[in-house]
Amino acid sequence: MTNKYIYFIANWKMFGELGSLNTLHKVTKFFKNFKNKKFTKIIYCPPSTLIRPMSKKLKDSGIDVGGQNCHENENPGPFTGFINCKMLKSVGAKYVIIGHSENRKTGENNKLINLKIKSALKSGLKIIFCIGETLQEKRKKITKRILNNQIKSGLNKIKDKKNILIAYEPIWSIGSGLIPKSNELLDTINFIKSNNKNYKVLYGGSVSTKNILQLRLIDNIDGFLIGGASQDSKKFIDIIKKSYN
Ligand code: PEP
Question: Rounded to 5 degrees, what angle do the CA atoms 137, 180, 208 make?
């Protein structure tokens, strides 16, 4: 288990304030001497207002920062309330989450997600591309069809995929405390990788200190996108530590 490169991506969603950055020193201190550092990539995706202060705090720590979404237009424009990838990059982001189900729910479709991914790649950001099925789709046993469609449309006409991480996040698992059965997760991740053997595929949805050992046994997973548990630095550190037990 130990020699595998693993991503731990913290999705802070619309949580966190300037004061919460103080908790970062615990994570940087832990990571500085972590024995599995060279196999571990930590990325924080805070609300946009915290990207600059966070990237300053994390400078030289080996931990990167990313945005949680972006506008599809690379150039400035009349898009009230939005920011684009160049803007994210200019404040220190190296990554951006695109296609999160919380944004798909408010109207982002696969075509728009494709435009956003293209724009992010042009701006030199790496992408955390989220896909996942609803509970209803899972019950109908059409998960693979849904994921295939999300991947094909989201990555349409994108040849170079090396800067894209795919985060499989079953929607019914996000924030619910539920995770897929291990055999189902193994099968789904293998299915995603069957599209392209070079894909790095992460799992997201209710990852916690309690289930990380079980999840780490599924050895085709390349890392985790962690929402709730990532906002507490102790829990986040514990998840990382337990991953290498
Ligand atoms: C997420 O929203 O990306 C996520 C994984 O959330 P949680 O860990 O809280 O389920």
Answer: 130
Identify whether 169 is a catalytic site residue: yes
φ, ψ of residue 62 to 5 degrees: the values are: 85, 0
**pTM of the prediction?**
0.97
**Exposure string (b/e) for 79-114, b if CB count within 10 Å is 16 or more?**
eeeebbbbbbbebbbbbbbbbbbbbbeeebebebbb
pLDDT tens string 79-107: 999 999 999 999 999 999 999 999 999 99
Pocket test for ligand 1, best of 103, 207, 209, 235 (most atoms within 8 A of CB): 207
Collapsing DSSP states into helix, strand and coil, what is residue 191?
helix
**Residue 199 to residues 110, 161, 163, 186: CA-CA distances in angstroms?**
19, 8, 10, 15
What does the pLDDT look like over 108-136, one tens digit per residue? 999 999 999 999 999 999 999 999 999 99
Catalytic residue among 100, 102, 108, 133: 100
d(C-alpha 116, C-alpha 40), whole Å: 27
Question: What are the backbone angles phi and psi of residue 241, rounded to the nearest 5°?
Answer: -60, -50
pLDDT band at 3 (very low <50, low <70, confident <90, very high): low
Please count the CA atoms within 13 angstroms of the CA of 134 that sit on its side-chain side: 6
Whether residue 137 contacts residue 146, with contact meaning beta carbons closer than 8 Å, is answered with yes
Residue 100 annotated among the catalytic residues of the structure: yes
- Residue bearing the CA closest to ligand 1, atom 2: 227
Q: Write the pLDDT tens digit of every residue in 24-69.
A: 999 999 999 999 999 999 999 999 999 999 999 999 999 999 999 9
